[in-house]
Amino acid sequence: MNTTPTLEMLDPATMTVDINVRKDAALTPDFIASIKEHGVMEPVIAHRKDDGTVHVLMGQRRTRAAVQAARPQIPVMIIESPEEAERIVTQVVENIQRAELTEADEADAYHQLSLIGVSAAAIAKKTGRTKTTVEGALKAKASDAGAAALGKGYTIDEALIMAEFEGNQDATEELESVIADEPDQLLHVAQMLRDRRDSAAALAALIEELEAADKTIVEDAGHYATDENLYVSAAKRSDGEPATDEDANAYLISTDYRGQHSANPVIAGWQDLGFTPKYERYDGGPQAQKGPMTEEQKAERKTLIANNREMESATKVRREFVKTLLSKKTAPKGWQYFTVHAITHD
Fold first, then answer.
1. Helices 103-115 & 144-151, crossing angle to 10 degrees?
2. Are the C-beta atoms of 309 and 202 separated by less than 8 Å?
């Protein structure tokens, strides 16, 4: 019996694919487009049954993408029996355990095992890696940005971060610059980018909510007669009673140092509507500023808020580091020196 694998060019539409073998085998438009343009570069592994049907053992995602991309043929390595797949698993595990294997090669090996139905837990057990490491590698490998990062020699952790910001060109460029010049700052910068992204999404949602309710959004508001728009909390009605939120005809969106947004009720054009300011501005002498902030003062305030947000991002990273440290069963190397240094230095 000939057990030598043979390479054949076959129509992917005629092959049997186990679509449930891999839960994360989602076919993204980019992946299908790549297969359509370049074809399947790495042969899939399959077994030909007695009835002539070809059953895919490794490369289900590539086969399905080739079908959707209408590729007429793909390279297929036909092996003698399904048991041969177990030999492949053993070979991949042996490759993973080689000391000289790069993280990109390791992630690719995990990916190959996942394609033939080996779970992350099973891969971790077979290779001696942690389940978290394996899951991270598979997640990075499943992303175009993550796979590209691994191809550039990035670590699995770095590739995971690149995958997280896939499609965001500005974030990608900033992360690549940090990895090249200040890799020890990567976690901080990544958290800062997450916070910016979350803050921007929350701001967009708030604006959409206000616009859907037909609310006017203004750029500035204040508490005194020199301000064009008055906060409701700083206004009185014509009868002298304090204004309430029901009197608001506009909103000013403010953002605190944590990047959290709030809509503050405002009365725009309060003079024409019969409202008066509750408070009079204290003159404070010749140095006191009258009127709204200048553009320079606004810029300084934005810088202050941005710096405070960066501090908040750094705090999140430190907390996560301590949390991970405390969850370890054994103390890290050099913990005695770190403890003594922390106690004896301000």
1. 140
2. no
Rounded to two decimals, what is the model's pTM?
A: 0.56
Q: Residue by residue, what is the 3-state secondary structure of the chain?
A: CCCCCEEEEECHHHCECCCCCCCCCCCCHHHHHHHHHHCCCCCEEEEECCCCCEEEEECHHHHHHHHHCCCCCEEEEEECCCHHHHHHHHHHHHHHCCCCCCHHHHHHHHHHHHHCCCCHHHHHHHHCCCHHHHHHHHHHHHCHHHHHHHHCCCCHHHHHHHHHCCCCHHHHHHHHHHHHHCHHHHHHHHHHHHHHHHHHHHHHHHHHHHHHCCCCEECCCECCCCCCEEEHHHEECCCCCECCHHHCCEEEEEECCCCCEEEEEEEECCCCCCCEECCCCCCCCCCCCCCCCCHHHHHHHHHHHHHHHHHHHHHHHHHHHHHHHHHCCCCCCCHHHHHHHHHHCC
- The DSSP letter of residue 35 is H
Say which amino acid occupies 298. Answer: K
325: its two tokens: 């440290």
Sequential pLDDT tens for the chain (346 residues): 445 678 899 999 999 885 433 334 567 888 899 899 999 988 888 888 888 889 887 778 889 899 999 999 999 988 776 665 566 667 767 776 665 678 888 888 888 777 666 788 888 888 888 899 899 999 999 889 999 999 899 999 999 999 999 999 999 999 999 999 999 999 999 999 999 899 999 999 999 999 999 999 999 999 999 899 999 999 999 999 999 999 999 999 998 878 889 999 999 999 999 999 998 876 554 444 555 556 666 666 566 656 666 666 656 665 665 666 556 656 555 555 555 555 555 5
- Asked whether the beta carbons of 77 and 46 are under 8 A apart, the reply is yes
Output the CA–CA distances (angstroms, integers) from residue 303 to 38, 66, 296, 309, in the order listed.
47, 51, 11, 10
